[in-house]
Design brief:
The chain contains five helices and five strands. The chain is of the alpha+beta class and 173 residues long. It has two domains: 74 residues, Beta-grasp domain (Ubiquitin-like (UB roll)), CATH 3.10.20; 68 residues, DNA polymerase, domain 1 (Orthogonal Bundle). Strands 2-1-5-3-4 form a five-stranded mixed sheet, with helices on both faces. Helix 3 packs across helix 5. It is globular and about 55 Å long.
């Protein structure tokens, strides 16, 4: 079995003796001990296993290692820098998004990829961009508010009184 080289969260990693068909998710969780990406559906439909590769939100449960050699991968663990949360992570806390928390890895990484491509999305663009990341607890209003807050923060504009939060909408996570 071949060895694979990956860059995960800025760190070079070598994974030996891995089946080429083995999902990237299993390598991240079992060989590299990263627990941000979660096993959800195993079909790439829920988004719990999301990682970022080349700026794209990618489902690691369906991506085989044979397609991952040489990849630069960002997981949830790699978003914070120098002890400071990424603005998307901070927005999730500020908006009190998590309910059970299971989907949050996929939600946060999908939101980051969305905001990297479109730093000022409309509500419709947020809903469309986040559509593939499912939440069993239905915290979608909170997720949308957190994406809007993160967009403001990332643009250098503070969240203002006219920034509508999930709590403003009468929704509790």
């Amino acid at each position: 079995m071949p060895a694979y080289k990956l860059t995960v969260n800025g760190r070079a990693e070598r994974v030996d003796s891995t089946d080429p068909a083995q999902p990237l998710l299993y390598v991240l969780r079992n060989a590299l001990n990263l627990h941000g990406p979660k096993f959800g559906c195993g079909l790439g439909q829920c988004g719990a296993c999301t990682v970022i590769i080349k700026g794209e939100a990618v489902r690691s449960c369906t991506r085989p290692m044979s397609q991952s050699d040489g990849a630069e991968i960002t997981t949830l663990e790699g978003l914070a820098q120098n002890g400071r949360l990424h603005p998307v992570q901070q927005a999730w806390i500020d908006e009190q998004v998590p309910a059970c928390g299971f989907c949050q890895n996929g939600q946060i990484l999908t939101a980051k990829a969305l905001l990297d491509k479109n730093p000022n999305p409309t509500d419709a663009q947020i809903r469309q961009g986040m559509a593939g990341a499912l939440c069993r607890c239905m915290t979608y209003f909170g997720i949308q508010a957190a994406v809007k807050r993160a967009a403001l923060t990332m643009s250098g504009r503070p969240a203002t009184a006219d920034h509508e939060t999930a709590q403003d909408q009468g929704v509790r996570a």
